[in-house]
C-alpha cells in the first residue's frame, strides 16, 4: 500500500527530526531547559520579557541564649531571572512528489542533516550566551590550556565560591583536547548516551566536574583597543534589591582613549581591591595567601565618548550589604568610584575561551509555538524544546515544502556559576 502523505508525513518527519536532534546535542544536554507558554510576541523578545524565580538565601545569626527578640529578622527577598527570546531558528525544505515517494523509506537519513544543522545553530548561540554571561574567569587569555591542572583550577574556584550541589561541566575546544591527550586517563562513557555526547566526553569525574567535554561551537571574543588605565567613574549601587532580577550591573568607566577607545562584549574585567566571597558563608576567597578579586563580563560593545568615558553593562553584580541584608553578598566591600579595572590579554586580539559551569548557570528554553493554518501543522515538545513542523504546497511548481521551527530563549540564573577558562603560565 502506498504511503498516505496527507495524514502521516508530519508525524514521520517529526519523529525523524527529534531522533536527529537527540543524537547531535552536547551543550544543550548540560543546561536547564523549560518551555515558555506566556510570551507576548509584540515585545520582540526583548530581555526581561520572560522570567523565572530565583531562590532565596538567608544569614544565620548566633546568640548565647537563643533569644531573638532584639535581633533583626531575615528579609524574604525573592528575585526573578530575566530571560531573552531569540530569533526563530528554521530549517526550510522542499521536494517534488516524485522525490518524496522515492525517499519515503529513508526519512531518518534525509532529515538527520537538517536536525544536526539546527542543533549546531542553537548550540553556537547557547555557547555565545554562556561566554558573555560567565562572570568568572580562570587563567590568562594569552596562555593555552595544556595541563589538567588548568581545568582543576576552575573546579577549585567553584568549590571556594560555594557553588551548590549539582552537575558541573567543562567544555574545551578540540585543540585543547589535543594538548591534554598525552595525560588523558581512561574514560567511562555510558554506551547508551547519544553519539555526539559519547564523542565529546574527554574525561569524567575530574576536579569536581562530572564531565569534561569538547565542543566546536565555542565562540570567539575579540578584546577592545584599550586595556589599561581604566577606572570606575562613579560608585554603583551595591544592594541586592537593585540586581535581584538580573544580576547585571551598569558601570560608568573612564580612562579610555577619547572617541576611539573600545571595550567589547565577552571581555572579562577584574576590579582591583574588591574581593569575591563565598556566596554561602560570605568569607573572602583566598588563593596562595592573597584574596581573589571579583570579575565581571561585558555584555555589549561600548565606545568611549570625547572625554574617554563609557557606560558598560556587565554580567555579575558586586553586592555588599551588612547584617541580615548581606545574604546575597558577592564581594567583601562595595565598589567605589576610582577603583581600577584590570583586563587580561592583548589589545584587539581574538580568543576562544573554554567554559566551566554548573548546570544551574544558564537555562535554555523554547517558546511553545502555535500551529499554523495550513495543510498540516504539528508541534512536539521534546525535553524542553518545542519543535514545530509545518507542511504546505506550491501547486503551480508541483512541490511540497516543509519547515521546522524552534524559537529559543536564554536565561542566566547565576553568572557566578560560570567561568571563562584559559591556560596558565
Give me the secondary-structure topology.
Layout: H1 5-22, E1 35-36, E2 50-53, E3 80-85, E4 89-96, H2 97-103, H3 107-133, E5 136-138, H4 148-161, E6 168-172, H5 174-180, H6 195-200, E7 201-206, E8 209-214, E9 221-222, E10 230-232, E11 248-254, E12 262-263, E13 268-275, E14 286-287, E15 290-291, E16 293-298, E17 302-303, E18 310-315, E19 340-342, E20 350-351, E21 354-358, E22 362-367, E23 376-382, E24 385-394, E25 399-406, E26 408-412, E27 418-421
What distinguishing features does this structure have?
single chain; 425 residues; alpha+beta; Elongation Factor Tu (Ef-tu), domain 3; six-stranded mixed sheet; six-stranded antiparallel barrel; disordered N terminus
How does this structure look, described?
The chain is an alpha+beta fold. Among the domains are: about 5-60 and about 75-130 and about 365-410; about 220-350, Elongation Factor Tu (Ef-tu), domain 3, CATH 2.40.30. It has 6 helices and 27 strands. The strands form 7 sheets. A 6-stranded mixed sheet has the order 5-27-21-6-8-7, with helices on both faces. It has a 6-stranded antiparallel β-barrel with strand order 10-11-18-16-13-19. The longest helix is centred in the N-terminal third of the chain and has 27 residues, at about 105-135. It starts with a helix and ends with a strand. The model is unreliable at about 1-5 and about 185-190 (pLDDT under 50).
Amino acid at each position: 500500500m502506498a504511503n498516505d502523505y496527507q495524514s502521516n508525513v508530519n508525524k514521520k518527519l517529526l519523529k525523524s527530526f527529534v531522533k536527529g536532534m537527540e543524537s547531535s546535542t552536547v551543550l544543550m544536554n548540560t543546561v536547564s531547559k523549560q518551555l515558555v507558554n506566556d510570551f507576548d510576541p509584540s515585545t520582540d523578545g526583548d530581555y526581561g520579557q520572560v522570567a523565572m524565580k530565583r531562590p532565596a538565601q538567608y544569614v544565620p545569626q548566633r546568640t548565647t541564649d537563643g533569644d531573638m527578640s532584639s535581633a533583626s529578622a531575615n528579609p524574604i527577598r525573592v528575585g526573578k531571572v530575566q530571560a531573552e527570546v531569540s530569533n526563530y531558528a528554521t530549517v526550510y525544505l522542499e521536494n517534488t512528489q516524485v522525490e518524496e515517494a522515492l525517499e519515503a523509506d529513508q526519512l531518518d537519513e534525509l532529515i538527520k542533516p537538517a536536525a544536526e544543522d539546527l542543533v549546531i545553530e542553537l548550540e553556537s548561540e547557547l555557547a555565545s550566551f554562556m561566554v558573555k554571561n560567565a562572570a568568572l574567569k580562570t587563567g590568562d587569555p594569552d596562555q593555552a590550556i595544556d595541563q589538567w591542572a588548568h581545568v582543576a583550577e576552575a573546579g577549585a574556584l567553584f568549590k571556594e565560591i560555594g557553588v551548590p550541589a549539582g552537575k558541573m561541566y567543562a567544555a574545551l575546544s578540540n585543540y585543547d583536547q589535543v594538548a591534554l591527550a598525552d595525560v588523558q586517563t581512561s574514560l567511562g562513557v555510558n554506551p547508551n548516551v547519544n553519539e555526539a555526547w559519547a564523542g565529546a566526553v574527554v574525561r569524567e569525574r575530574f576536579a569536581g566536574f562530572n564531565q569534561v567535554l569538547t565542543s566546536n561551537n565555542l565562540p570567539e571574543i575579540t578584546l577592545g583597543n584599550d586595556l589599561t588605565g581604566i577606572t570606575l567613574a562613579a560608585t554603583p549601587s551595591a544592594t541586592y534589591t537593585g540586581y535581584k532580577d538580573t544580576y547585571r550591573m551598569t558601570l560608568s568607566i573612564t580612562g579610555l582613549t577619547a572617541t576611539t577607545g573600545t571595550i567589547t562584549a565577552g571581555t572579562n574585567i577584574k576590579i582591583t581591591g574588591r574581593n569575591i566571597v563565598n556566596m554561602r558563608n560570605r568569607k573572602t576567597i583566598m588563593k596562595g595567601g592573597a584574596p581573589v578579586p571579583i570579575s565581571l563580563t561585558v555584555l555589549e560593545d561600548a565606545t568611549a565618548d570625547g572625554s574617554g568615558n563609557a557606560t558598560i553593562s556587565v554580567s555579575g553584580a558586586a553586592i555588599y550589604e551588612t547584617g541580615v541584608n548581606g545574604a546575597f553578598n558577592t564581594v567583601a566591600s562595595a565598589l567605589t568610584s576610582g577603583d581600577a579595572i584590570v583586563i587580561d590579554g592583548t589589545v584587539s586580539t581574538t580568543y576562544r575561551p573554554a567554559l566551566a559551569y554548573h548546570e544551574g548557570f544558564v537555562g535554555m528554553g523554547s517558546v511553545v509555538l502555535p500551529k499554523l493554518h495550513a495543510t498540516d501543522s504539528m508541534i512536539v515538545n521534546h525535553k524542553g524544546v518545542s519543535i514545530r513542523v509545518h507542511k504546505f504546497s506550491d501547486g503551480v511548481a508541483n512541490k511540497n515544502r516543509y519547515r521546522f521551527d524552534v524559537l529559543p530563549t536564554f536565561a542566566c540564573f547565576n553568572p557566578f556559576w560560570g567561568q571563562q577558562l584559559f591556560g596558565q603560565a
